[in-house]
Structure formats: structure tokens, C-alpha cells
Amino acid sequence: MKSLAVHLFEILACSGVLLALYTVLLERRVRFVWCRRYLIAAMVLAAIIPLLRIPVWAGEVLYLDPLPEALPETAAAAPAAQPLLRPATIAGALYGAGTALIVGLALGQILRIGRLRRTGRRSRTARYTLVRSPQRIASFSFFGSIYVWDQSPECELPAILAHEASHIRHRHSAERLAMEALRALMWWNPFVWIAARRLTEVHEFEADSDVLHSGFDRVEYMATIFRQLFGYSPEIANGLRDSLTKKRFKMMTTPSSGSHPLLRLATIVPVVAGLVCAFSFTTRAAEIRFTDPAAATIDLATTSALTDGDNTPLILIDGVERPTLDGIDESRVDKISILKGNSAIALYGERARHGVIVVTLKKGNAGDDARPQTDDPDEPFLVADVMPLFEGGSLTDFRAWVQQRLRYPAEALEAGVQGRVVVQFIVERDGSLSSVKSVAAPAEVLAREAERVVGLSSGRWTAGRQHGEAVRVSYTLPVDFRCSEPATEAQPETIVVRGKVVGTDSEPLAGALVVRRGTTAGTVTDREGNFSIEAPKGTILDVSLVGRISVGVEAQSDLTVVLTFGGATTAEEVAVVGFGS
């Protein structure tokens, strides 16, 4: 997974390359319509290419065997508390603030255009709506409407309307909004701002070109542009204004220098392909292959190369741990399996943090023993053809059996000591246990208790077998000690009580107090005598009103409470209760 900094750098690199290609090969050298489309597509591609993941390069191949389970799955540790102001949170907040600012500015301009439309005089034609505004504005267009100052000279209107009608015909407003959205999404990218500026230039160049080709005099048209420079014109719209004037005059007075436009456009393809190769091609995920029992999956020489260096993997030959692969006849190898990562550690513990190489030898012929020779023929196996079984069940069943028989030491319970004890033991050929010892424990008293309970299982195992013979097998078992939490009382079901308080004449009583007995939580009836309150089922609600006799009723979903005359009548007897504190 790419880091955020790398991803942002790749977007900047793609944007810069694609924008440089436009400046060198395309700007004013191909048709305006291609320039417009390229600028928007280039910024979209700059954002998409770094996101692509195209697996091309060969990945690592792992050969795995279905290995017997040596450790049951353990509960995941509780995630560590994360700081509130993480770098990712700060970066997300900054990004959201920048995007919101750009979007807010764009919406503000659209709202101002809407006000100009409402306050101006509108007239419709077949191609557009003309809005004459009393406010002094520079002429501009936005989608199907043209906005002009109502004091604009009539002699200048034909050129102005021809220019803005060109914007409308080519749908420049939609492109401006699309670029504005890209700028909001990638406001931190300076190349997007430059591309937005270039798009504005292309729009003005294209509209100016259409006006001149329709027969307007160039000198008079340029003078009209000068006179239209003053007045409000929204950035999000298209118009006759701003600092583009010099470039527009240069465009109108200088012939285009473009040649071979199709060849220039074709140059885009290899450039984009190069960016995809640079930023999207990646290595294929590691391929996992299961070994073929009939033949060795990888040769011994290749496997031996994995043991070079400091990070030597755990080596098991027919279930027996060996320091190296030296001295093994390759013709006797039946299959080789390689296990890496968390799955190796889960099966074999920290010794397998650099991986596990499991070599299975062919069975001997004519009584020959194919098991590798070791200094100690009674060395226990870590993996056997048939693993030992506790009372016919799996290792998970044995772990549950151990957990049920643990007695939490009193001194550890008082001190609040808890954690995991890792116990190692050997299942002998007759099903008994030997060498029961703890290799990791948070406290000695917990280690002794775990060893005691594991030892109780001695003689209740079925021995493991290798090549049909009973063998000694070493096991590693995690035993968890957790201080039990005090049981909490079951909470009664909470219901919403909706009711009405009335007098003896069935008239609703407003201002009656409804309180959960023994608390200050309550409510007051409205003008119709209605109330609503949450309370545990069976709770007593005390209902009272000055001048009426208070009553207590059991909380139910639907209640009608009748209060009769009597009770408190003097000021000294009035109770004042505050809610929400």
C-alpha cells in the first residue's frame, strides 16, 4: 500500500508531465476542441493513474503443504488506544477544509449570477436568454444565458453577443464547472490551477476565433474588448475580461503555428503509457502453490539458498528440527514445503519468525529407515504424519479442557496478575506426558498452575505416528489467565411511557409533575395533559399537581392518571424541582 506522501508525489508528477506535453505539443497547435478535452482529461488521468494497480512483475511463489494444527487460534489483542490528533486525521481535516473553501467560493459565484438574473430584464431568443442587468458588469455567459450591462452601447452588442453565443454553443460553462470540481478535489496540486487557467484561455481563444470568422472587423472587435474590461464578471463564467486580453490579441493577430495535428495528438498515447508503466505497474501478489505429494515441489539446492544469511528459517526434516539441510540425499526427498509470515509463527512460535522449511522424505525400501540420522534417535518430532490426539479430540478441545480446570491462584487474583502462559510438553509413545514446563509466563504462580493442569492429562493421549511407528511429539500450548469481571445485575427493560393526566371531570391537567420515584428525572404535562417519559419497566411514577392529591402509578406503555382535588394549597407546601441537571 502506498504512503500518502508517495501517492501525492505521483499525482504531481503525472500532472506536471501531462501539462508540459500540452504546452510543448498542443497549445495553439491543434484545434481548440482537442485542447479543451485534453486539459480536462489530463487532470483526470493524473489522479487515476497512481490509483491503478496492474500486477505485471512476477511475484514470490510460496509452496505450502496442508500442515497439522499445532496451536489453536487465539483471541486478538485489544487495539491500542489511538491519539485523537493523528497525522492522518490532521491531513484529512486540512484536505476537507480546502475542498469546502473552493466549493463554497464557486457556489457563492453561482448565487450571485442567480441574483443578477432575478434583477435583470430577460428576453429569449432561439439560441440563448439575454439578461440586461442594471448593475455595471462585464459581459459574460453562463450555460444558456448571456449577461450584459443594460447601458452597453447598442453598436457593441452584436460582437458581444456573437462572442458569448460561441461560449454557449461549445458548452464552455459545463467544462468550466468540471474543471472547478477537479480543482476542489485537488486544490493542493498547482498544476490543476494552471490547467484551469489554460482552459479559460482556450475558451476565449475559441470564442474570439468564431467572432472573427463570422465577419467582424478585427480592430473594432479588439476595441470592444477593451471597453468591456471594467465591471463585475464571475470567475466561474465565460466573458470578455481579465488579464487574458494581451494573449487574446496576440492570438488574433498571429497565425497558428500548428502542423501535423494528428501526429501531435498521437504523441499523447506513448506518454500516458509511460506514466502507467511508471506508476501503475506493480508486482503480482505472492503465489501460493500446494505441493504435489508425488514429487518434490522445489529442488534441494534452491531451498538451501534460503538458509544463507542471518535470518535462518526453522528447518524440519520428517518432523525433526535440524540446524541445516546438509547431508540430505536429494533422491530421498518426497516433498518440500515453505511456510512464512504469521501462519508460520502461529504454528511454531517465535522460532519460525524467519519462516519454516518442512522436508518430507520418502519411505525407506526393504526395511531401510528413511528418517534422517540424528545424534538422539529419541528426539521429539514437531510435526508427525499423525499427530497425537487427546481423548480423540483436537488440540482446541484439549485447550478448552485445560481452561475449564484452571484454579486462579489467590495471590495472583489479589494482585490483579493476568496474561498468557505458554507451556511446552512432550507426548510420549505410550500417551503419557513428559518435560512439562512453561517457557513464558507473567508470574511464577500462574506458570505452576498451568503446568499442574496440563500434567493431569498424562496417559489420556493417543501417541503420534511417523511412517506407521509411534513417536514422541513436542507440543506448545497457550493457557490464558483472565481476572473475571464482577457480574453485573441484569438491567430491567426500559420503556417509553406515554400518558395523560386528567381531573375527575376528565378535563386535561396542564403542568402536572411526573417523576420517577427515588430520582429527580421527570417531566411536566403539556396543555392537553399529555406527557412522555422513559422509565424501567415496573418503576413507580409519582404524579402531582398543586391543589390535587398526588398518586403513584406503575410505569406502563399507556397510562391515564386521574388527580382529585385536595393536597397542597399553601405556598409553603409547593415543591420546586429542576430537570436536566
List the helices and strands and how they pair.
Elements: H1 4-26, H2 32-48, E1 54-57, E2 61-64, H3 87-119, E3 121-124, E4 129-133, E5 140-142, E6 145-149, H4 157-169, H5 172-185, H6 190-213, H7 218-227, E7 238-239, H8 245-253, H9 261-266, H10 268-279, E8 281-283, E9 287-290, H11 300-305, E10 314-317, E11 320-322, E12 333-339, H12 341-348, E13 356-361, E14 389-390, H13 395-405, H14 410-415, E15 419-427, E16 433-440, H15 444-455, E17 461-462, E18 464-466, E19 469-471, E20 473-481, E21 494-502, E22 513-516, E23 522-524, E24 530-536, E25 540-544, E26 551-554, E27 558-562
Helix pairs in contact: 1-2, 1-6, 1-10, 2-5, 2-6, 3-5, 4-6, 5-6, 6-8
Short description:
The protein has 581 residues and is α+β, with helices and mostly antiparallel strands.
Index terms:
581 residues; alpha+beta; 5 domains; 5-stranded mixed beta sheet; 4-stranded mixed beta sheet; 27 strands; 22% strand; disordered C terminus
Please summarize the sheet with the most strands: 5 strands, mixed
Total tally of structural domains:
5
What characteristic shape results from the CA principal axes? flat
Helix/sheet category? alpha+beta
> Strands of the biggest beta sheet: in what spatial order?
3-4-6-5-7
- The percent range for strand residues is 15-25%
Helix content: 25-40%
Radius of gyration: 42 Å
Number of helices: 15
End-to-end Cα distance, whole Å, is 50 Å
The mean pLDDT is 78
Query: How many strands?
Result: 27
Unreliable spans: 63-81, 290-297, 365-375, 567-581
